Amino acid sequence: MDSAFWHDKWQANQIGFHRSCVHPFLAQHLQRLQLNRGARILLPLCGKTKDIQWLMQLGYNVVGIELSELAIIQLFTELETVPTRTHGPCWTRFDAPNILIFVANFFDLPATEIPAIDAIYDRAALVALSSAMRIRYTRRLLELGSNREQLLITFDYVQDRRQGPPFAVPKSEIQQHYESHYTLALLADDNVPGGLGSNQVLAREQAWLLLPRHSVSSVSLQ
């Protein structure tokens, strides 16, 4: 999916991926990251997700990266917050208390611009990308996140039965991308009610906990 695809989606308000409330997997499993109040959480390809406000209300600091400026303008409108804007060569930075959002291409934003983070929450980023882009994305995320712990939400279904996004990212692919850096644990594995898309493809939504191998002795993969 190229940049124009996502810009067109936001311009046309075709944002079925946007939830009207906090994601239940985040609410149920955030504590598994064992973060202190004030910890900084990176949300790649964040859109205007309600998860941002929920995390801020719990006392966390959010750092987001999003391609669509329209999405971020809408986000701050919904937050009822007027951010400070700073323009860089390939990004625009939106600053407000407890939140920092970069409007930028995820692959172009210099790692030096991102402050030190404590964890990553990937709700709809990995599954939004084609297979080739997922390879680039996971390598880039490891660079930006310095191998920080991660809560990852994915979908698994027979990819031939529908076009993404969201794309199917099975366990084997998650292992391929992350197992050399993380210990993986499956926290949730639920049927998608009504299936995915207009053709209602049977699918499962999954939540994964990724813990850096240097910080954990053993986490079972269910």
Commentary on this structure:
Strand 3 and strand 4 (91-96) form a beta hairpin. This protein is 26% helix and 26% strand. By secondary structure, the protein is an alpha/beta fold. The longest helix has 15 residues, at 131-145. It has one domain: Vaccinia Virus protein VP39 (Rossmann fold, 3-Layer(aba) Sandwich), CATH 3.40.50. Strands 3-4-5-2-1-6-7-9-8 form a nine-stranded mixed β-sheet, with helices on both faces. The two termini are 31 Å apart. It contains six helices and nine strands, in the order H-H-E-H-E-H-E-E-E-E-H-E-H-E-E. The radius of gyration is 17 Å and the shape is globular. Residues 216-222 have low confidence and may be disordered.
In short:
This protein has a single domain, classed as Vaccinia Virus protein VP39 (Rossmann fold, 3-Layer(aba) Sandwich), CATH 3.40.50.150. It has six helices and nine strands.
What CATH first level would be assigned?
Answer: Alpha Beta
Mean pLDDT: 90
Please state the second-level CATH architecture: 3-Layer(aba) Sandwich
Model regions low in confidence, pLDDT < 50 over at least 5 residues: 216-222
The quaternary structure here is single chain
Can you lay out the helices and strands and say which pair or pack?
Elements: H1 3-11, H2 24-29, E1 40-44, H3 50-57, E2 61-66, H4 69-79, E3 84-87, E4 91-96, E5 99-104, E6 119-122, H5 131-145, E7 149-156, H6 171-178, E8 182-191, E9 204-212
Parallel strand pairs: 1-2, 1-6, 2-5, 6-7
Antiparallel strand pairs: 3-4, 4-5, 7-9, 8-9
